[in-house]
Design a protein that fits this description.
The protein is α+β, with helices and mostly antiparallel strands. It has seven helices and four strands. The protein has helices at residues 12-24, 50-53, 56-80, 84-88, 90-113, 125-129, 144-154; strands at residues 2-9, 32-35, 133-140, 160-165. Helix 3 packs antiparallel against helix 5.
């Protein structure tokens, strides 16, 4: 199980030093991501992916659940209409409409969510617009304190802004 650490850095130069320190501490580069102001060149530093920058995953979960519930309700209505239940084999209608509703809901929700900024990043957006760099690092739970201490030892000005379970984990 991994935990995601969020912290702001003053600039790209600080980010580069911390990335190098994390790599030396054997944190895989695929578990490090940076978000900077539009137009700031990250050079060879790892940028945040679309999944990390948008509300894609929460929207997928919500819309699939809502679509599935809607499909189930539609299936129940279809089964309860006199004469159609026996013709359509009620359980198949319920299952099919639930799965179809979840699929359609997930598709619609994720198409919209791709353009919605990640709500978890909202507190950091003003600082990012002022030129700070947000770093997200996924670390194994048993190394969490070690990595936080490493960051604070080399960069005492850095404030760890949040720690949460990774959902989904970095690929």
């Amino acid at each position: 199980m991994k935990r995601r650490i969020y912290f702001l850095l003053p600039d790209i130069h600080h980010a580069r030093r911390i990335v190098n320190e994390l790599l030396l501490a054997r944190i895989d580069v695929n578990h490090i991501a940076l978000i900077a102001k539009e137009g700031v060149e990250l050079e060879d530093l790892p940028p945040a992916s679309l999944l990390q920058r948008s509300d894609f995953i929460p929207a997928l979960e919500r819309s699939a659940l809502l679509g599935g519930a809607t499909g189930l309700l539609a299936g129940l209505i279809a089964v309860l209409i006199p004469g159609t239940g026996a013709v359509f084999a009620g359980w198949a209608v319920l299952a099919g409409s639930t799965v179809a509703g979840a699929g359609i809901g997930a598709l619609a929700g994720t198409l919209i969510a791709v353009d919605v900024p990640n709500s978890r990043l909202k507190p950091f957006m003003q600082s990012i617009e002022q030129g700070h760099v947000l770093m997200l690092v996924d670390v194994p739970y048993d190394r969490l304190e070690e990595i936080k201490k490493l960051i604070k030892t080399h960069h005492p000005e850095v404030e760890i802004e949040g720690v949460e379970p990774t959902v989904p984990p970095f690929p």
